[in-house]
Amino acid sequence: MTNELICTAKEAVYHIDDGACIMVGGFGLIGAPLTLIDALTKSDLYDLTVISNNVGEAGKGLGMLLRQGKLNKAIGSYFTSNREVAKAYHQGQIDLELLPQGTFSEAIRAGGAGIGGFYTKTAVGTELAYGKETKVIDGEEYLFEKALTADVALIRAKKADRKGNLVYYKTARNFNPMMATAARTVIAEVDEIVEVGELLPEEIVTPHLYVDQVVQSELVLTKDGVKSVV
Amino acid sequence: MSNVKDMIAKRAAEEIKPNSIVNLGIGIPTLVADYLNDDHFDLHTENGLLGVSAVREDDIDPLRVNAGKLPVGEAVGAAYFHSADSFAMIRGGHVDAAILGALQVDSKGRVANWAIPGKDIIGVGGAMDLLVGAKKIIITTRHVSKDGSPKLVGECTYPITSTRIADTIITDLAVFQWNGEKYVLTELMGDASLEEVVNNTTLDFEVGVNVGEG
């Protein structure tokens, strides 16, 4: 198992199918699996649905997949950070589903925990509540939100051990730990791969049972933008 | 006071009780941090950090940012967590105050701050969760929009962010507090006159005692 766990980005994305639903970690490019996304740009995959807070930035991260016309649909909370998303949407090139960020992250946590959905007060009475079931609980109105799951999750962590246990780095953690739980196949891009036993059991955020593949990162976000480290 | 944004931010800081957990939105709210005493509050940012502090130029880390994706520092005693936990803190009522910007606030206390009809803004971020979940909502905004039209209006024409009532509104002209039924003008800001506030506000409010006298 140890040998099968670690692979290249190209090998990791090889088994993804056209039309797949893919969760992608990151708050913009912060904590995004840049090497795995880059591998998707070099693949011949099309008609993808992405579940990610943003669609990267213009031409960067998932923004490159958008430019390539590989995305059919995006589910997230903030597409404004890439102006090309609204343009593609108005031209009918991409379908968008907008969720409040807390609802988005909770829907992924629920999906990973085997919960079909949940009731929240967030968005009650707003445009984002249209068509959604409401329920009064203890005198207050709540909105039903369905859980989110995916075929594949592409996530980023700071370190993995050779079993696939993961630890994260500062605010690069963001959506990655939930996404690690909510997809059938989970591929983690990491800055460093260490021996089993080197991570303290108490510090592990994502236990190895969630993780199917580990890929050594080749692209990192620096103060001066995305840089290759190979 | 260098400008009106700082004046608004300084006044907003006075609304924060010691030992509060505070979430700051983008724009004027971010400036409030400059007027809060570090020993008496903890700043929460919804992308996963409790204990946000100012950052020195030589300590900038591109992977340590606030919800506006700006680099921030890490206070002593800070903690990191993932987004689902972060929003559980917000919706669960564990954040004492959220200081937010607004496009409009109306007579019913409803805030619009996430979308402008006809503009290519397709994003809501954490705005709806913060309005629903924070224990106290403080709105900081310019009193009128760039074209001079009122931002404090009878009824929001922009899509609302929540039906939750904003507790306090602080502008460059005035401070309003919700009294359970409507907004009360409790203070005039800077050199503003009551007449100036009345002329630039279509939101229904009553004038508090001693305001605008002398």
Overview of this protein structure:
The complex is a heterodimer of chains A (230) and B (214). With 230 residues, chain A is an alpha/beta fold. Chain A has one domain: Glutaconate Coenzyme A-transferase. Chain A has seven helices and 14 strands. In chain A, strands 1, 2, 3, 4, 5, 9, 10, 11 and 12 form a nine-stranded mixed beta sheet that branches. Chain B is an alpha/beta fold and 214 residues long. Chain B has a single domain, classed as Glutaconate Coenzyme A-transferase (3-Layer(aba) Sandwich). Chain B starts with a helix and ends in a 7-residue tail after the last strand. The chains are: A alpha/beta (230), B alpha/beta (214). At the A-B interface, helix 5, helix 6 and helix 7 of A face helix 3 and helix 4 of B.
Quick recap of the structure?
The complex is a heterodimer of chains A (230) and B (214). Chain A contains 7 helices and 14 strands.
Measured distance between first and last alpha carbons of chain A:
26 Å
Subunit arrangement of the protein: heterodimer
Per CATH, the class of chain A reads Alpha Beta
| Bulk shape of chain B | globular
How many E strands of chain A?
14
